[in-house]
Amino acid sequence: HLASASYRSRLTNRRGPGWWRQAARAVRPFLDAGQNELLAAELRYQTGFGKYPMPKGAIHGDLFCDNVLFDGERVAGVIDFGFAATDFFAYDLAITVNDWCIVRDGATRGALAPDLAQAMTDAYQRVRPLTDSEREQWPSLLRAAALRFWLSRLYDLHLPRPGELVHAHDPAHFERILRDRVAHLPRVGAAGC
Questions:
Q1: pTM of the full structure
Q2: Closest among 49, 23, 61 to 140, alpha carbons compared
Q3: CA distances (Å), 90 to each of 4, 21, 41, 151, 163, in order?
Q4: Cys-Cys crosslink for 63: which of 6, 27, 96, 119, Cβ 3.0 to 4.6 Å?
């Protein structure tokens, strides 16, 4: 993010708030009443996303564990820049935390793993400290990141695009993550994140 701060080219986030609303309309028929309620409530909550004064620049937009290659303990490469865009740096961090820093199994699957989330956000802040606005918006950013991937997975499952080689992932995973973020509202630097 530090390196991309001076990158002047701009690329619209193809999976940003405009797409969220369009995708939500398309997937609603496939959802039960509780899921539709969650989706409608989250879209209302996220109204105005993108209007906060937070640092923006080039982001990866999909920095999941399986998009980072390691050679032992060293990062050897980053792949899959298909959703790279210009957006909030802290949103990119939230996307990453929602994948890398979660409970992987059991009754609390999808919940933030506090020690992992704290370690990642602390490490990030040693290089690029978050602004007050980013810290204030952190719970909303985590929720926005969960909403984006829940919608993507619902869309890919129920409305596959002809000719695309997209593997449909289970949307329930990010539904659980979104429900957890709505219920717990984690803060940067606080217990739980």
A1: 0.93
A2: 49
A3: 13, 22, 22, 20, 34
A4: 96
Nearest Cα residue to 182 out of 37, 14, 18, 29: 37
Of 63, 49, 69, 149, the C-alpha closest to 101 is 63
Q: Which two tokens stand for residue 175?
A: 């539904």
Report DSSP letters for 48-116, one per residue.
Answer: TTT-S---EEEE-S---GGGEEEETTEEEEE---TT-EEEEHHHHHHHHHHHHSB--SSTTTTSB-HHH
Tens of pLDDT, residues 123-140: 999 999 999 999 999 999
For the chain, how many residues are written? 193
Phi and psi at 57, nearest 5°, equal: 175, -165
Residue 18: strand, helix, or coil: helix
